[in-house]
UniProtKB/TrEMBL annotation:
GO terms for cellular component: cytoplasm
Name of the protein in question: Selenocysteine-specific elongation factor
SUPFAM superfamilies: EF-Tu/eEF-1alpha/eIF2-gamma C-terminal domain (SSF50465), P-loop containing nucleoside triphosphate hydrolases (SSF52540), Translation proteins (SSF50447), Winged helix' DNA-binding domain (SSF46785)
Subcellular localization(s) per the UniProt record: Cytoplasm
Signal peptide: none
Keywords: Cytoplasm, Elongation factor, GTP-binding, Nucleotide-binding, Protein biosynthesis
Short name of one Pfam family: WHD_2nd_SelB
Function of the protein: Translation factor necessary for the incorporation of selenocysteine into proteins. It probably replaces EF-Tu for the insertion of selenocysteine directed by the UGA codon. SelB binds GTP and GDP.
Tr-type G domain segment(s): 34-205
Organism: Neobacillus mesonae
InterPro entries linked to this entry: Beta-barrel_SelB, EF-Tu_GTPase, EFTu-like_2, Elong_fac_SelB-wing-hlx_typ-2, P-loop_NTPase, SelB_WHD4, Small_GTP-bd, T_Tr_GTP-bd_dom
Domain of life the protein comes from: Bacteria
GO molecular function, one term: GTPase activity
Length: 657
């Protein structure tokens, strides 16, 4: 058993040094200026990767019994290489045997620099070539070539091996990689290669420690008395003791009880470090290599990814449309099918192929993640590439899809945010991060641009979308005002009904409220109109309306049915209701009930007369005597006073308010 968390553990339980208990033993956490890197040892089996790692670090990374017996690396091995105030470097020793290629890919997926190990007595071998292809596809550009076991051959043979290696590296990203001659037993060249590693990494940028934390798990085990421990390379971000995390794609919530970096307790772990995390809230049986520990909901879980791939230089077999493939991404291995949109097979291809992977299981990934593709049978590496969009969809075969994928591929963060908002119209920050696969810090910076608008405190849209909606509303209202000049405006629900098919309702509400604030629109009750609009009688009916009002005014308190006035004025039935509502809104008439109305000034004068000839309260009979009205008009008039809040009926009396 490996003692990662050392409480109650003895030296016999672990091949590594034990540390004292208690918080006082915690390693001092470096400032954010300190940089963390992980390098990898790659190459053919038995070329001396593990021996070189031991010579550099004094740690034997072959810790399993089977590894000792067979003298080959089966699982990933890890060791601390170097640390000072500015830099910390870890080493991953990856298996070289072809049977353990999954472990190799899982190991190198998180490294910042590779040491390609080639034995002087054998030269470049098949696994060396495959490892080179894998490193190329994973986008690892910094490399050092270590020619090992130099004491076994003479100088002339070493020169032949150099030429052999140069021939293999020519035209690759490692074409200019420096060579170091080493012998792990005699320690020749060991200090030289160590200093070269340090110098190279001091000139290299570290991984993003500001983004959300992500650690693909490459080992899961338990420690007696401590529980479940996961280990891996921190791809990005920072994790702290006590932090709540999630295991994806399973969605399990856990807490980081303790953290260790190279078997030393640490309050934090940073991007680029090898870390072991003691998790509470989960058992070992719940987890497996390939799961990912994250601190954010922004990472996407998916089964369809749009990708850009390259194939190996010499394909032994055709890659056919919808052929089963094995995807290696991070520490995850999952089966799926490759889907092309511009071809049905690949024989040979020098450039990138834009296509899609449809997977049998969900994975967690983001834009820019690198991966390897292998054929399940016969087993071989066929290519690799990077994720364009983790939220792939099912597209049609043809050039149009390729053109869309090309746009996705080359788009800048701003262009991708804009494209997402043009499609969805409105998105929260979480939704934006998931749709665009852009880091939270980067996207937050981009959203400061004036082209993006935050509304309701949580939703983003584009300025151009707001302007477009506002222009559409202006056009709709102008047309409505022309056709219905008598109406105060359009009922808001009616105005937005058809637009809600294209835009979220909360966005439409925002545009209207924003327009009201900027005096583009105005609102009266539930009705919305243009700010400058004033309801009016259509010119063609203005004279007839004046005549109708004059007749109504002339009849004073002894009015006929209101409909009779409209008929006498020659106003058609289809205009009557709108005109009646308009005249009432303008105060030109006051409806007593559904049938009778008074001219506005007549009504107001009548109210003044009644108030002036009564006390604080009065009865119906008293009002009849003062106004000289019959019950036909008196009761509707008094009820209208009640409705307007001018009076209040108390039993058989009216009380002035």
């Amino acid at each position: 058993m490996i003692c990662i968390f050392i409480k109650n553990c003895s030296l016999e339980q672990s091949p590594y040094k034990s540390y004292s208990k208690g918080r006082s033993s915690l390693k001092k956490v470096a400032s954010l200026e300190k940089r963390y890197f992980t390098i990898g040892m790659a190459g053919h089996i038995d070329h001396g990767k593990t021996s070189l790692t031991k010579a550099l670090t004094n740690v034997d990374t072959d810790r399993l019994k089977e590894e000792k017996e067979r003298q080959i690396s089966i699982e990933l091995g890890f060791a601390p290489l170097y640390e000072d105030a500015e830099l910390q470097i870890s080493v991953i020793d990856v298996p070289g045997h072809e049977r353990f290629i999954r472990q190799m890919i899982a190991g190198v997926a998180g490294i910042d620099l590779v040491v390609l190990v080639v034995a002087a007595d054998e030269g470049v071998m098949p696994q060396t070539r495959e490892h080179l292809e894998i490193l190329k596809f994973l986008g690892i550009k910094n490399g050092i070539v270590a020619i090992t076991k130099i004491d076994r051959v003479d100088e002339e043979f070493i020169e032949l091996v150099k030429d052999d290696i140069l021939g293999e590296l020519d035209g690759t990203v490692f074409g200019d990689a420096p060579f170091v001659l080493v012998d792990s037993l005699s320690k020749k060249g060991i200090e030289e290669i160590k200093q070269l590693i340090i110098k190279t990494l001091k000139e290299q940028e570290m991984r993003d420690a500001k983004g959300a934390f992500r650690l693909p798990i490459d080992q899961v085990f338990t420690v007696k008395g401590q529980g479940t421990v996961v280990r891996g390379t921190v791809y990005e971000g920072t994790v702290e003791e006590g932090q709540t995390l999630k295991i994806m794609p399973k969605g399990l919530e856990v807490r980081a009880r303790q953290i260790q970096v190279h078997h030393q307790p640490s309050a934090k772990a940073y991007a680029g470090q090898r870390a072991a995390i003691n998790l509470s809230g989960v058992s070992k049986d719940d987890l497996e290599r390939g799961d990912v520990v994250v601190s954010s909901e922004h990472f996407i879980v998916t089964k369809i990814i749009d990708v850009a791939i390259r194939v190996v230089d010499e394909l032994e077999h055709l890659i056919k449309q919808r052929m089963p493939v094995k995807l290696h991404i991070g520490t995850t291995e999952v089966m799926g099918r490759i889907v092309f949109f511009d071809r049905n097979e690949v024989k040979a291809e020098n450039g990138e192929i834009l296509c899609q992977l449809r997977l049998e299981e969900e994975i967690l990934t983001k834009r820019g993640d690198r991966f390897i593709l292998r054929r399940p049978s016969p087993q071989e590496t066929i290519g690799g590439g990077w994720v364009i969009d983790p939220r792939g969809d099912k597209y049609r075969f043809g050039n149009q899809t390729i053109e869309e994928l090309e746009k996705k591929k080359v788009g800048s963060p701003k262009e991708r945010i804009t494209a997402a908002l043009l499609e969805a119209k409105s998105l929260s920050l979480d939704e934006l991060i998931k749709r665009t696969a852009i880091d939270e810090a980067v996207i937050a910076d981009q959203l400061l641009d004036g082209e993006f608008v935050l509304y309701n405190g949580k939703e983003y849209t584009l300025r151009v979308i707001i302007d477009s909606i506002e222009e559409d509303l202006i056009d709709r209202l102008q047309e409505f005002h022309l056709q219905h000049s008598l109406k105060a405006g359009v009922n808001k629900a009616e105005l937005l009904q058809t637009m809600q098919k294209k835009f979220p309702k909360n966005l439409l509400d925002y545009v209207i409220e924003n327009g009201i604030a900027n005096q583009v629109f105005k609102r009266k009750g539930q009705f919305v109109s243009l700010a400058e609009f004033i309801p009016h009688v259509p010119k063609s009916w203005a004279k007839r309306t004046e005549n109708m009002l004059a007749d109504l005014k002339k009849d004073d308190l002894k009015v006929r049915y209101l409909k009779d006035y409209f008929t006498a004025a020659g106003i058609p039935d289809q205009l009557e209701m709108d005109l009646r509502r308009f005249l009432e809104d303008q105060g030109l008439i006051v409806m007593l009930d559904d049938q009778f109305a008074y001219f506005g000034d007549v009504f107001n004068e009548t109210v003044t007369k009644l108030r002036g000839n009564t006390g604080s309260e009065f009865e119906v009979g008293e009002a009849k005597d003062i106004l000289g009205l019959s019950r036909k008009y008196m009761i509707p008039f008094l009820e209208r006073l009640d409705a307007k809040g001018l009076t209040k009926r108390v039993e058989n009396k009216r009380v002035w308010q």
